[in-house]
Amino acid sequence: MIPGGTNLPRVGGYNQTVVLDAIRAHGPISRVELVPLTGLTAQTISNVVRRLLNKGLIEESGHAYSDGGKRRTLLSMRACGAYAVGVHLDPDFVVVALVNLAGDVVRSRRIRLIGPVDPADLVEQVARTVKRLVRDAAVDPDRVLGAGIATPGPIDGANGAIVDPPNFPGWGQVPLAKMFSEAMGMPVAMDKDATAAAIGERWIGGAERSGSFLFIYIGTGIGGGVSLDNTILHGDSGNAGEFGHIVVEHGGRTCSCGGTGCLETYCSPAAILADLSERHGEQVMARLGLTATPKSLHSDWAQFRQAVRRGDPAATDAVRQAARRIGQASRSAVNLLDVGRIVIGGEAVKGLESILSEEIDAAVNGASIARVVRRVSIEPSLIGDTVGAVGAASLVLHGNYAPGWRQLTEHPR
Predict the structure, then answer these.
(1) pLDDT digits (tens, 9 = 90+) for 337-359
(2) Is 335 left (phi over 0), alpha (psi -120 to 50) or beta?
(3) How many domains does the chain have?
(4) Residue 313: inside a domain, yes or no?
(5) How far apart are CA 384 and CA 345, in angstroms?
(6) Most exposed residue of 20, 22, 153, 210, measured as fewest CB within 10 angstroms of its CB?
(7) What domain of life (predicted)?
(8) Where residue 42 sits, what CATH number does that domain have?
């Protein structure tokens, strides 16, 4: 589809996002340095900077070094200029965070989910938590741009609904975006958790996360987010990046998606613990303090990660076996997408980064098609284990302040 035409006033809004994005990624930076970086004229830069200063989105933050001439004033993003709420929905918990323009978590709350959860009850509980976080942080509600919701897939992106999520039995097709917007009284954006995480990395990382990368998200399940040339891929239905459903064992284990041999059936936390028990027996499980019941998955996984960090041979063997399969799937993704960076993150990753990186590096840089042309870097998330909630908030921040065709084609409101 060819983008529709636009009136010149819309270009002004687009230019503001271009300049703000440049200051966010490269600041502190002077007006003069913004000219070649953005391709805008000095006069346009001057006008745009003045508007951003008036809106409180940027600030003058000192002066550049000078060897005799006039010192240039430096510009930086003003973290308290705007805020967004991030809600990360996982089968075991909900993380709610108030995030400022720089991507810093100002206040957060973690809500444990026990047993079957009613969507309406959950939405109301989260809405009350959001209002409390904003009040406790003494933030002007008018500076809260909206809320982002990061959910497991699959989703109906066009209608803001989550559709038969495997780990939320009985949910069917739930219009979460509409429900959260009505309960919170603010605009809501919704996306898959792994895609939101990739957007969060792109927003927070600035120049370090420019270009193209694959984000591998490991929580209760496994997902992927893809940035190609600074554009996050969503796909026609909003379900691009289902990394956990790359087939790694033909005719293998049955997956919740209805297929067989999917990566997630071998490398999710539950699958890794089950493999540990099968390969090393109940004595090892008891020695590591693992009870291996569905209700103890969260505590078992924490214990397991501690064992890996201690260098326990059985735990290390189990995670390394899973990491090899993740490397196998990563090689397929890299061959398809030709990205130069893989980022690893998510709630379940902490303490396992080095082993995951080693095995993914060996699989990708040892056998990918383009390995003779470039080396793929394997890096941990810049955000850490709150990437889901920060990524959710970044749906709003990125949507409002990252340059894109949306600013040119949408009608003013």
Answers:
(1) 999 999 999 989 999 999 999 99
(2) alpha
(3) 3
(4) yes
(5) 6
(6) 210
(7) Bacteria
(8) 1.10.10.10
